[in-house]
């Protein structure tokens, strides 16, 4: 999205093979858009040329905006943000794509915490317009304004919210996912039938089980656990042991092509 808007983008990961897969995946999706006449080959090539893979965090020192998308674990995110704060300029906006972790907690040990915010995109990010712009206790209103202007320029629809468990969408969506998993556990119907009922009968663009598979069962389960514990284990947000099993071994559905549900009727 940033590259499509003309920005040079540094893609950081400690694993070079993950970066190679990421760029190749983007290249393939762009090729599909070219084949459908949605994009010219020159536009696709120009977009890819703006993606620069890096394996050293120090390469981000001159960035004006960082969007973190590490694993959904508070300790990992807090450690990464502390490193970024030491490397980047005090004016660099440090944002997290977290689905549920407290922005206030992430910013707690960061120098200049007023520039830390949530910038939560939804899967698939190139298609979904909504972006939650999340304020922690220390986030400055000016930073929120700047982020809203930025994502609007990228063709997205920002919605402002405070840092509470699950923010807006994941707080409301957790029971939706959870009840689908409970129906599966109780063998009410096969996965494809549950999804079809919600998709075709309920008007949802995608069934809840297929959507968790797209997100990645491990990621979705981690978010559910985060929201469940943040709400003092309110049973509305009770995690599913079946989903935990589906997500075992870092099975990120569409990303890794492993651990996916069988959605055949």
UniProtKB/TrEMBL annotation:
Keywords: NAD, Oxidoreductase. Residues 2-162 form the 3-hydroxyacyl-CoA dehydrogenase NAD binding domain. It is an enzyme of class 1 (oxidoreductase). The keyword GTP-binding does not apply. Its EC number is 1.1.1.157. The record marks 120 as: Important for catalytic activity. One of its GO terms (biological process) is fatty acid beta-oxidation. Residues 166-251 form the 3-hydroxyacyl-CoA dehydrogenase C-terminal domain. It comes from the Bacteria. Pfam families: 3HCDH (PF00725), 3HCDH_N (PF02737). One of its GO terms (molecular function) is NAD+ binding. Coiled coil: none annotated. PANTHER family: 3-HYDROXYACYL-COA DEHYDROGENASE FAMILY PROTEIN (PTHR48075), 3-HYDROXYBUTYRYL-COA DEHYDROGENASE (PTHR48075:SF5). This is Probable 3-hydroxybutyryl-CoA dehydrogenase. It comes from Raoultella planticola (Klebsiella planticola). The gene is paaH_2.
């Amino acid at each position: 999205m940033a590259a499509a808007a003309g920005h040079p983008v540094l893609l950081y990961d400690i694993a070079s093979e993950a970066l190679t897969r990421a760029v190749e995946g983007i290249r393939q999706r762009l090729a599909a858009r070219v084949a459908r006449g949605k994009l010219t080959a020159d536009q696709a090539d120009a977009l890819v040329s703006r993606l620069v893979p890096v394996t050293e965090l120090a390469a981000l020192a001159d960035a004006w905006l960082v969007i973190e998308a590490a694993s959904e674990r508070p300790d990992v995110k807090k450690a990464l943000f502390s490193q970024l704060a030491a490397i980047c300029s005090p004016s660099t906006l440090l944002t997290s794509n977290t689905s549920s972790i407290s922005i206030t907690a992430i910013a707690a040990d960061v120098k200049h915490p007023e520039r830390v915010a949530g910038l939560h995109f939804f899967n698939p990010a190139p298609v979904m317009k909504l972006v939650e712009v999340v304020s922690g206790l220390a986030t400055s209103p000016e930073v929120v304004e700047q982020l809203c202007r930025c994502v609007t320029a990228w063709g997205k629809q920002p919605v402002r919210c405070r840092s509470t468990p699950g923010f807006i969408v994941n707080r409301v969506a957790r029971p939706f996912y959870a009840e689908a998993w409970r129906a599966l556990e109780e063998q009410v119907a096969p996965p494809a039938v549950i999804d079809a009922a919600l998709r075709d009968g309920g008007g949802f663009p995608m069934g809840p089980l297929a959507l968790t598979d797209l997100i990645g069962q491990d990621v979705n389960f981690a978010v559910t656990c985060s929201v469940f514990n943040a709400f003092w284990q309110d049973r509305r947000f009770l995690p599913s042991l079946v989903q935990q099993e589906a997500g075992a071994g870092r099975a990120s559905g569409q990303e890794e092509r492993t651990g996916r549900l069988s959605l055949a009727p």
